[in-house]
Amino acid sequence: MKILVCISNVPDTTTKITFTANNTQFNTNGVQFIINPYDEIALARAMELTEGGKGTVTVINVGTVATEPTIRKALAIGADDAIRINAEPHDAWFVANQIAQYIKTNPFDLVFTGRESIDYNGSKVAGMLGELLHIPSVSIVKKIDINGQEATVEREIEGGKEILTIPLPIVAGAAEGVAEPKIPNMRGIMSARTKPLAVVEPVEVKLIEEVISYELPEPRGQVKLAANAEQLAELLHAEARVI
Amino acid sequence: MSVLIYTENTDGKFKKSIFEAVSYARAIADANSTDLTAVSIGNVNADELALLAAYGADKILNVTSSNLKNFVNQAYASVIAEAAKKTGANVIVLANTLSGRGLAPRLGAKLEAGVVEGAVALPDQTDGKFIVKKTAFSGKAFALVELTSAIKIIALTPNSFPVTENSKPVQVEEFNVDTDPANFKTMLKEIVRSTDKVSLPDAEIIVSGGRGLKGPENWKILEDLADVLGAALACSKPVSDAGWRPHNEHVGQTGVVVSPNLYIAVGISGAIQHLAGISAAKVIVAINNDADAPIFKVADYGIVGDAFEIVPQLTAAIKQKNKA
Question: Do B254 and A140 touch (CB under 8 A)?
């Protein structure tokens, strides 16, 4: 089985978000970049599904040379090889088109993304890939197993979950619960340096969206401390009018 | 110019998040002096469909084919695309629910339409542009996104637009399209209902617990509080990582990002990742024994003290109010 894991390079979860250039650019100064946490879960599950010689795991990233440390980390965790499509990841539509183009000439049985990236939170690449490749996609996957040529997938729904069976190939957006992220060991880190990382030039894509600017949430006012539970209940009822 | 809204149903009923999205779509239609058509897929009875007109749908396309009874994003996307073609829609609105998140990007790719998932405000159409505000960085910021495609798709964050009555005559039209069997490869084996009374992503009130509760055996006091408030239960990441509570209750940057009217954080210190997930909450209440905990920096109301004493007292006080 051949598995492709799409990874994005995102700011570490502890990052305090700020912007520059009149709020039009994300301020990357001093920011540590990591593999998107959901993509890391996807990678861990891909490793489990191919354990014992049952297949190979390729990671793919759309990014400039600056993302290579993140790609090497994925190789250290255990991916067999990596592809970097050499372009700024303009948006989900651009990224999905680049990856779809690659898959058209290099087919995979299972394509993983994370349920969303923690920077733009679009949850879009999985669904777009599915549509561009004319194959099924499940965007928020809580569990996935492969049996021969069929995937059994648990999808989160409001108030429960659905259990789906789908013939391969599919695109799956991994969420928490799919697997525990794996930490690279020393052997992995050593071997990551020599694993193949191919650089592919992008195809042209007509852009259809643009981030114009960013805003930070309004700062919240001073906390009002209540002396006891009765007073708190009264404040929530009479002042905040939320209960 | 015309606006289309996909109105997802849950067991034949529309949730509040759908009426919010209909109200939102109506506002876009009004701003452009055009019509709003709703498309409903699955078994929804006439009374329930009429509610869509009450919130502003001029026309309702009702899709009842038996093979479309269960949600399959691939097939639903193709039906909605057909409805968009039929109505000449250039704005398509959905609610940003768990299913909507799987559907919107498929629809976007099919129609080569720009998609904003997680919109929190009406589009700004000044100077013929189309700019939509959405949450970004998991609630730590907002992004203003300009869509330049011919068709624009917006998935609206629940609880970010008020439900507005805007009654139109009820006009339902049966709409059935043949869809390619290739769109039906996903087979539904089983639906497992959780025992949660209120689901987290569309909850108006949330009661959330952190490590300060010391163990899963102590969740009863939060359940009791949630019961009197009709609230959903949630937790911080350390709690779900420790296996005290299921992952789907984890609120934060790598969990569920919520937007309730009221968020009560009990024994949660307020790590930056957790605060990101609750930044859209309208009112935040903190109950914590550490007066210096970061949660108090974002809370609107709070009590410094022992959660094990305060929470049952709060439950009793609210019960008292509910009776009055």
Answer: no
